[in-house]
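[step 3/7] inverse_fold.run input=structure_tokens len=101
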């Protein structure tokens, strides 16, 4: 069970991910999106996986949406990894510290 502080941290972290959900809906042509949130002692792990068309990862495909999400996460001392290839869907893994101060 989460305490109020943990719930507030989760809300703060997820609120910034609205752009990611919009990207998934508009670009992936997916049938299913799985979002997994795991709270650890000192960090939060968010994993987003879709069964869409995927994309070839390259600097040219690293558009404004992905760049701004990555920048926002790094501002919070977090990390974002993307695993995608054309025809296979996309997995986005985000790790951020619980302490947002």
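[step 3/7] decode complete -> sequence:
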């Amino acid at each position: 069970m989460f305490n109020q502080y943990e719930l507030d941290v989760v809300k703060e972290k997820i609120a910034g991910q609205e752009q990611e959900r919009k990207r998934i809906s508009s670009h992936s042509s997916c049938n299913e999106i799985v979002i997994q949130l795991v709270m650890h002692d000192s960090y939060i792990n968010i994993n987003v996986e879709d069964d869409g068309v995927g994309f070839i990862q390259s600097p040219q495909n690293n558009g404004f949406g992905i760049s701004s999400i990555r920048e926002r996460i790094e501002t919070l001392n977090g990390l974002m990894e993307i695993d995608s290839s054309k025809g296979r869907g996309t997995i986005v893994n985000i790790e951020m510290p619980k302490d947002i101060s």
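[step 4/7] annotate
The first strand starts at residue 33 and ends at 39.
Residues 21 and 48 are 9 Å apart (CA to CA).
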